[in-house]
Amino acid sequence: MNKISIKDVIEVLKKIVDPEIGLDIVDLGLVYGINIDENNNIDIKVTMTSPTCPVTSIILANIEMQLESLKDVGKVNLELVWDPAWSPEMMSDEAKAKLNVL
């Protein structure tokens, strides 16, 4: 069994785009934490830009589906959190530039 790395997980998550904003969830700052144990079980904490985000279920399902497709993955445990609340400051510099957020 190959050990899955944080880099492997981030690579997958960068392919998941928020359909309303058009940027990936990593650059948007929606990924709050990733932990991978010795059995390649992935614990991931994510948030949304707003508790009323209409595409939350789509994004969460996509995260789970994409991570479960990783070779040698164990269980994927996805936790949606609201603390701390997301803000534009959490975006990568690249995302801020694309959205003209200063």
Structural commentary:
The chain is of the alpha+beta class. The chain has a single domain, classed as Fe-S cluster assembly (FSCA) (GMP Synthetase, Chain A, domain 3, 2-Layer Sandwich), CATH 3.30.300.130. The protein is 26% helix and 16% strand. The chain contains three helices and three strands; from the N terminus they run H-E-E-H-E-H. It has helices spanning 6-13, 56-68, 93-98; strands spanning 31-36, 42-46, 76-80. It has a three-stranded mixed sheet with strand order 1-2-3, with helices on one face. The termini are far apart. The mean pLDDT is 95.
What is the helix tally?
3
Query: The CATH topology, please?
Result: GMP Synthetase, Chain A, domain 3
- The N- and C-terminal alpha carbons lie at a distance of 44 Å
Q: Summarize model confidence as the mean pLDDT.
A: 95
Taken as a percent bin, the fraction of beta residues is 15-25%
Q: Provide the low-confidence segments as ranges.
A: none
The helicity comes to 25-40%
CATH class: Alpha Beta
CATH architecture: 2-Layer Sandwich
> In angstroms, what is the radius of gyration?
14 Å
Q: Which word captures the global form?
A: globular
The H-and-E topology, N to C, reads as HEEHEH
Report the oligomer: single chain
The named CATH superfamily: Fe-S cluster assembly (FSCA)
Describe the main β-sheet briefly.
3 strands, mixed
Kindly report the spatial arrangement of strands forming the biggest sheet.
1-2-3
The class by helix and strand makeup works out as alpha+beta
